[in-house]
Amino acid sequence: MLVVMKAQATPEQIQAVCEHIEQLGFRAHPLPGAQRTAIGITGNKGEVDRGNLESLSGVAEVIRVSKAYKLASRDVKEEDTIIGFAGTNASIGGRNLAIVAGPCSIETPAQAFAIAEQVAAAGAQFFRGGAFKPRTSPYAFQGLGLEGLRIMAEIRDRFGLRIVTEAIDNESLALVAEWADVIQIGARNMQNFSLLKRAGRLRKPVLLKRGLSATLEEFLMSAEYIMSEGNYQVILCERGVRTFADHSRNTLDLSIVPAIRRLSHLPILVDPSHGTGRRDSVLPMARAAIATGADGIMVEVHHQPEKALSDGPQSIYPAQFVTMMDEIEQIAPVVARHLPRGIHVAAEV
Amino acid sequence: MLVVMKAQATPEQIQAVCEHIEQLGFRAHPLPGAQRTAIGITGNKGEVDRGNLESLSGVAEVIRVSKAYKLASRDVKEEDTIIGFAGTNASIGGRNLAIVAGPCSIETPAQAFAIAEQVAAAGAQFFRGGAFKPRTSPYAFQGLGLEGLRIMAEIRDRFGLRIVTEAIDNESLALVAEWADVIQIGARNMQNFSLLKRAGRLRKPVLLKRGLSATLEEFLMSAEYIMSEGNYQVILCERGVRTFADHSRNTLDLSIVPAIRRLSHLPILVDPSHGTGRRDSVLPMARAAIATGADGIMVEVHHQPEKALSDGPQSIYPAQFVTMMDEIEQIAPVVARHLPRGIHVAAEV
Amino acid sequence: MLVVMKAQATPEQIQAVCEHIEQLGFRAHPLPGAQRTAIGITGNKGEVDRGNLESLSGVAEVIRVSKAYKLASRDVKEEDTIIGFAGTNASIGGRNLAIVAGPCSIETPAQAFAIAEQVAAAGAQFFRGGAFKPRTSPYAFQGLGLEGLRIMAEIRDRFGLRIVTEAIDNESLALVAEWADVIQIGARNMQNFSLLKRAGRLRKPVLLKRGLSATLEEFLMSAEYIMSEGNYQVILCERGVRTFADHSRNTLDLSIVPAIRRLSHLPILVDPSHGTGRRDSVLPMARAAIATGADGIMVEVHHQPEKALSDGPQSIYPAQFVTMMDEIEQIAPVVARHLPRGIHVAAEV
Amino acid sequence: MLVVMKAQATPEQIQAVCEHIEQLGFRAHPLPGAQRTAIGITGNKGEVDRGNLESLSGVAEVIRVSKAYKLASRDVKEEDTIIGFAGTNASIGGRNLAIVAGPCSIETPAQAFAIAEQVAAAGAQFFRGGAFKPRTSPYAFQGLGLEGLRIMAEIRDRFGLRIVTEAIDNESLALVAEWADVIQIGARNMQNFSLLKRAGRLRKPVLLKRGLSATLEEFLMSAEYIMSEGNYQVILCERGVRTFADHSRNTLDLSIVPAIRRLSHLPILVDPSHGTGRRDSVLPMARAAIATGADGIMVEVHHQPEKALSDGPQSIYPAQFVTMMDEIEQIAPVVARHLPRGIHVAAEV
User: Å from D93 to nearest chain A CA?
Assistant: First the structure.
């Protein structure tokens, strides 16, 4: 259910409607838009009585949302969600493309700084690096943990790059929320609903990767889990699904990009590194992702991929990243987008 | 790496080898067999030096395990793992088939008792029921929680049935470990490695369901996560995978049963309810599962499926469960198995 | 559209209704049942006028068939289709299980006779062997062609076994129809509609294998292509579909068996050889297939599989075939079936 | 096996090597390149003796081709294959992008001409339209047949557009070869090896669509079937594969484009119409296809898609086609390509 407020509704009226909803035992989600504010109503207590709500002052209309996902739906919020990063010119969603680049894992300070320096120079605004790694084998390198987060915090200080890194459980979630700028929830945890809810109680952006066999509806429902707890800063990310095809590690399902953009207001990035698993396919698929209308790219870059502790074969070289940025910049105008180069951090934040 | 002890090795010798391994910074996993004890060595510190180990007293030979999964592998433990339940004649693995039956969710005491009574009467030894439900939608019924566990504890008291129920996060894991007999990890959490490790530190059997797009190797690697922490009581469960086929909710991949039995010593059950999603396919697929050599069946039974809060369309009626038991009993001898009927609990435990 | 005739309708009345239908530009398919005859109406000219048909003498009622497949549907013919082989006790469909066994390819007379002798001795009634092979590579062994058909004709003479072999195009279809008892259409040709229609104009049974990514509806629609041309003797065969799973060559989708039996009157066999691609999985899956309610098994048997020109790794040894027959015989009564042993051919046919 | 001739080898020397190969019972495939001619050797008679060949005059070296596909492999022919159309500036492969546009089915002359006029005006060089339709149902519209071919021949005369249309069996193949410029083999016939061989004996370009569950290797092996018969003018076309994803009709697997370009010299087009099944996804995926490096687009255009006899929901409007052309034109330079607008036919051909 969605309450659409009148254009001239006052903050007090909006507040009063929210309180009324919460008194009924539901949860109210005020979603400000360019013209008017909408208030999403969620909860598993059955239907809200519509008549009463329509009679509250400032209310324009009450709409039933028929989709399973509500807060994530474009029916509820027509404008694209744009996630800003205070004190910087960086954003995810909207006209500007967002580029997240870095190694699969943070291995050593030297490795991380070397890569960060090069992706910053090429114009990335976001740095990715795994500190907590969800590995298929219990005997594989599991990441540097807190030490990795500290290294990335230093990268933010030195290069201004905003940090995206994965949380895999309660403990790492608390640490990632403290040290990073965007909390990544990986494909294997896309339906770890307990983790999603916990991330929903934080007030940091969450980058949610599509599960290996998730349908579009399941993907948006997982976003809904985060949003239903009050955190509306969700970034989706397509990273390939599992099929019979064996020429790539996964099958990058780019057709989900226009579908998501039609159905949801949330930004969607594409990860061509996990999506293909092959260095020589990363640039073609990054270009393709931008051409479909994706809001940006998340890509693995390593200066010595042959020595990488994880995902070496799918990491591109810094020089290839430079090429990728140039190519994306050329394609951007075709889809009414722009590629900002570099991040500008306000002196005093 | 695997240390095979001589048949006549003493407990002290086994202990000494384990201590030696741990001093090297690895983890030792003594795995007693019918003839001799083997000691699995795990850890992500690289290779152990073989020569030293071979010279310890009581050691017959040291074998490199080439598979990615080690403790779960039949190379390491040749005999089938049989999981017993103290004070009862119930077991999972080995000659006797295990039948786990009950509703998708515990809804009310009356519902749970009604179903439990009927599955107990038909000869089930294990009762399943969800108290913590991983639901695709945040707005769907999420289970009764602790209240559901209490109802199942009463079912154990009344009917003797051992309880299998799902844990979905740290909090529910602690509760399930306290109240139930078998901890279920669901398909969506098959690669929630943090939860797997935590379950590995408990000393209760863990029933691990195959993820919707998990390969056989990934499935065994997730079992390995639990075992690498010292909990060797792992039960696998096939419950269907996601494919293009639309005549069933999932595609039940029964060919994994002979493959698992070839590669691993762990027991494997089959869940034809989630595997098909259709009541009229449950019995045919339950029969088929037993015919492939599965160690048992996990099945949803509901006396009023049309009123079920979840999974009604795939729940069979109690009368169908009786038929299923009769059919399984007839097929069992073809695969050198036996279906025990009912659970016997020792008076004083 | 389906015209149901009264129980006491005369052959002349049935004939008159058929003629009326054909005059309207449609095709009439009289389908005799135990109680009454039904007449299927097909054609792509739009809807038939119902009123007129209902007024014809002998007509009980006229029913709209809403499924896409009509002649293949159980709505149109309730009783199981049983395909008999004149002058023998062999049949496919109904209470008796049908076992089709033999090598992937006919390689030499000696090889074919050696295998045929052993499968006949173990009680098979049907012999399979490829003379025309659809191979992925143009450079692989393509089969002996007519020579292979001649060898199989001799096997029929010597052992009584009825012959099942694949046709891959117009030329081979004409030859197979002349020399064999059942025309096989392979998975790769399941949607070779031109070949299906041509097979539909013949009056020999057609064994149609499911395509590697065919849905149930597509599978039945391909059967419908054959039936729409007047050949109602169609045998379906599940042989595995393509998924991400890599522990077997294909994923044998046994849950299609109860689904087909619910929706169609046509018999369905299961091929566990192509379905798994591994000798050690063939027997478990053959047992499972019978347990689901399949009408029989199609299996590759080779006395020297390590020397086979094709599909050696999935061919079972003759001794395993004997075991398979014994196991199937034991499971048969659970699903109200019977395994006839051996074929009896009338002296004078 | 591949015989590489010296750069200065004479036509007589090439001829002599070919004759020598054919005398050995193999087939010789002379493949002229920019620098030198290579001669592919195929046949299923086992290995050719290498020594003898190396001693023939004009031979530089003899190379073993380890891939299953040989003539289709870039190992055998390094330069991109470019297929020209005599008397016109149209081509497929190489620097110029090829755009094939038109309705799913030819329905009436008026429909076909209306669409042809508009796609020609927007700059297409190729017209597609089905005359022989492989339909899932025997009761669906099967195409106009020869009448459809005649209409398309008139379109060629009026607008210069070269004609691409599907052949589904021997009869339609003969007609399509006579009336059209490019013979299309559809996804369902990708492994109709008999049809492939027959198309391989013709000397018209063949557009081969990827099967719904074909691996890259199977796809190239089907091209190899055509080429092994001497027809080297093969155009590949990705059109989506079948997966669990339900937000699009098929899953367009764009990552096959860079993989094909790495492994084969054959041109590859992308069909975003069948690949997505949704009008609103066609343009995004067409842009993406060009961005991955595809050699062109095959797209369904209809001026009245709501009245189309087949595939209406995935056909774009002529105005969208104009937009698509403009967008492709802008992306082309990023991948070192050019979009020629319109076809120029020499006055006297």
Answer: 18
pLDDT tens digits along B134-149? 999 998 889 999 999 9
Cβ separation A280–D291 shorter than 8 A: no
Whether chain A has a CB inside 8 Å of the CB on D83: the answer is no
B201-to-B169, B189, B226 alpha-carbon distances in Å? 14, 17, 8
B chain contacts of residue D214, beta-carbon cutoff 8 Å: none
Burial D268-304 (b: 16+ CB within 10 A, else e): bbbbbbbbbbbbebbbbbbbbbbbbbbbbbbbbbbbe
Contact flag D255-A247 (C-beta cutoff 8 Å):
yes
Q: What was the ipTM of the complex prediction?
A: 0.94
**C252-278 average pLDDT score:** 97
Same fold, C2-63 and C83-335: no
CB–CB contact D193 C134 (8 Å): yes
Q: Which residue has the tokens 């091209």?
A: D223
CA distance D304 to chain A (A): 23
Looking at residue D349, its pLDDT comes to: 46
Distance from CA of C276 to the nearest CA of A (A): 15
The residues spanned by each domain of chain D are 2-63, 83-335
The C residues from 210 to 229 touching B (CB cutoff 8 Å) are 213, 215-216
Interface of D with A in 268-307 (CB under 8 A): 275-276, 280-281, 284-285, 287-293
Contact with chain C for residue B334, Cβ under 8 A = yes
Q: Name the nearest CA neighbour of A298 among A216, A214, A182.
A: A182
Identify the burial level of B204 via C-beta atoms within 10 angstroms of its C-beta, where 0-12 means exposed, 13-18 middle and 19 or more buried: middle
Q: Say if domain D2-63 classifies as CATH 3.30.70.1140.
A: yes
Mutate to test the interface with C, among D44, D45, D48, D193 (most CBs of C within 10 A): D193
Give residue B64's pLDDT. 86
Asked if B321 and C324 count as a contact pair (C-beta separation under 8 A), the reply is no
Residue of chain C whose Cα is closest to the Cα of D218: C136
Query: Is B212's pLDDT higher than 90?
Result: yes
pLDDT digits (tens, 9 = 90+) for A277-312: 999 999 999 999 999 999 999 999 999 999 888 888
For the stretch A159-218, pLDDT in tens is 999 999 999 999 999 999 999 999 999 999 999 999 999 999 999 999 999 999 999 999
Instruction: Report chain C's mean pLDDT, rounded to a whole number.
Output: 94
Q: Which amino acid is at C348?
A: E
Selection from B79, B77, B141 nearest residue B107 by Cα: B141
Instruction: Name every residue whose Cβ is closer than 8 Å to that of residue B13 and which is 6 or more positions away in sequence.
Output: B5, B56, B57, B58, B59
Q: What is the DSSP letter of B185?
A: E
Query: Which residue on chain C is closest to D137 by alpha carbon?
Result: C221
Burial class (CB in 10 A: 0-12, 13-18, 19+), D209: buried
CA distance A245 to chain C (A): 8
Report the percent of chain B where pLDDT is more than 70: 99
Closest chain B residue to the Cα of A139, Cα to Cα: B44
CATH superfamily of D83-335: Aldolase class I (3.20.20.70)
pLDDT confidence tier of residue C20, bands split at 50, 70 and 90: very high
Q: Are A127 and A101 in contact (CB under 8 A)?
A: yes
More confident residue, B275 or C348: B275
Q: Which residues of A touch C244 (CB under 8 A)?
A: 242-244
pLDDT for C33 equals 83
Q: How confident is chain D (349 residues) per 10-residue block, as mean pLDDT?
A: 91 94 91 87 78 89 88 94 96 98 97 98 98 92 95 98 97 97 98 97 97 98 96 98 96 98 98 96 98 98 91 93 98 98 82
Cβ–Cβ contact A72 with B under 8 A: no
Name the closest residue on chain D to residue C187, using Cα atoms: D191
